[in-house]
Amino acid sequence: MARDFTALYGAPPEGVWAAPGRVNLIGEYTDFNEGFVMPLALPHTVVAAVRRRTDGVLRLHSADIPGPVAELDATALEPRSGGWAAYPAGVLWALARAGHTAVLGGADLHLASTVPTGAGLSSSAALEVVTAVALDELHGLGLDRPALARYAQRAENDFVGVPCGIMDQMASAACVPGHVLHLDCRDLTVRQIPFDLTAHGLTLLVVDTRVQHALGDGAYAERRAGCEEGARQLGVPHLRDLPYRALPHAFARLDDERLRRYVRHVVSDDHRVARVVALLTSGTPGDLRAIGPVLTEGHASLRDDLRISCPELDLVVSAATAAGAHGARMTGGGFGGSAVVLTEAADAERIAAAVHDAFAGAAYPAPRVFGARPSAGARRLRPAS
Ligand code: ADP
Ligand code: MG
């Protein structure tokens, strides 16, 4: 990275940083309801080599996107412009708007990524967070992980124009190896929950269906609006404020069948997060296998109540569980993207083959399957600290 940077820009970088993509174990579409999520960082990262400038110029290059270096005026950035460059540019813009004007000096940035793009594994959040952590350290801004994640989210919401929640950026910024991140999306408090798959003889397979549904964007906004409307009709600030035991009562007070389904999904998925936390933390060691059925139940809720799954994701779950996986569910925004499968390590290859066979049998393009270890959040790679 440093060599490529120097070849591109004529001087070495001041540092090299990495930020990971993520999968979410449980708690889907709960983040914007100020509820709970439980992601883990993937070993796949976006890596960025960065050097500060003082002339207000922002130069950006990606090894993964053919094309010349993009050159922008850091002091005159406009939201909703610039293709992939909008993600890093948006982070600089969000920092500057919040008063961190040192970043307006500009920067040279070169990046390369191993996070599959558009697979629901949050390459966009990794790209934002790696930019945020690099600018924070280079300018000595002293921002903590939740603050970095908020600026990254603001870049995606207000500069790129994608209305995502906070989960992806927090996962990329705050995960630690060997753990899942139990995140309260109301105040961004975190609890690192041990999730040592290897020690338990388990594997978490990630299955990228390679399906990208264009319909995803509008559907996300529709679910979000529906959840807000449900909360309004029930007289709570957010669905997070509705206790699980109050669900039957809430049902009786909603006459819209669609809103009932959305409310039931969000409140029950918050509850599933709590159940998974209890299973992983009670007893030593925690009961990792027992979370499998909770994951599969979460998938059914996303499929039947929130209705954001697709035939390919449903097939991953049915084929994997039929072949003996402990549990499986879609992960991320839905309508395509990826699923996670919890299995005995010894069964992982056989279960991956069963999913491949099921896809071949349905004449779907072959999925991409890999095993995920819970990995580190954003960090500096060089110079080593
Ligand atoms: P996801 O976050 O699920 O991977 P998104 O559509 O949210 O999918 O983000 C993908 C976008 O992020 C890409 O279209 C591109 O603009 C940007 N991006 C991701 N990885 C890279 C990369 N290595 N180089 C340049 N841009 C990237
Ligand atoms: Mg994204």
The CATH architecture of the largest domain can be named as 2-Layer Sandwich
Strand composition percent = 15-25%
Mean pLDDT: 96
C-alpha termini separation: 18 Å
> Which ligands, by name, code or SMILES, are bound?
adenosine-5'-diphosphate, magnesium ion
Order of the strands making up the biggest sheet: 5-4-6-3-1-13
Could you name the ranges where pLDDT drops below 50 across 5 or more consecutive residues? none
Number of helices: 11
CATH class of the largest domain: Alpha Beta
Per the principal axes of the C-alpha atoms, what is the gross shape? globular
Helical fraction equals 25-40%
Global structural class = alpha+beta
Helix-strand topology string? HEEEEEHEHHHEEEHHHHHEEHEE
> What's the count of strands?
13
Biggest sheet: strands, sense, closure? 6 strands, mixed
CATH topology term of the largest domain = Ribosomal Protein S5, domain 2
Radius of gyration, taken over Cα atoms and rounded to an integer in Å: 21 Å
Instruction: Estimate nothing, just give the exact number of structural domains.
Output: 2
Walk me through what this model shows.
This protein has 385 residues and is α+β, with helices and mostly antiparallel strands. It folds into two domains: 2-192 and 375-383, Ribosomal Protein S5, domain 2 (2-Layer Sandwich), CATH 3.30.230.10; 195-371, 2-Layer Sandwich (Alpha-Beta Plaits), CATH 3.30.70.890. The chain is 40% helix and 23% strand. It is built from eleven helices and 13 strands. The chain has helices at residues 2-9, 86-97, 123-139, 145-160, 167-174, 216-234, 247-253, 257-281, 292-306, 311-322, 348-361; strands at residues 15-24, 36-37, 39-52, 57-62, 70-73, 106-113, 179-184, 189-194, 202-212, 327-331, 336-344, 368-371, 379-382. A six-stranded mixed beta sheet has the order 5-4-6-3-1-13, with helices on both faces. It has a four-stranded antiparallel beta sheet with strand order 10-11-9-12. A three-stranded antiparallel beta sheet has the order 2-7-8, sandwiched between helices. The longest helix is centred in the last third of the chain and has 25 residues, at 257-281. It is globular, with a radius of gyration of 21 Å. The two termini are 18 Å apart. Bound molecules: adenosine-5'-diphosphate (ADP) and magnesium ion (MG). Residues 46, 62, 64-65, 84, 87, 111, 113, 117-124, 127 line the site of adenosine-5'-diphosphate. The site of adenosine-5'-diphosphate (ADP) has 17 residues, from strand 6 and helix 3.
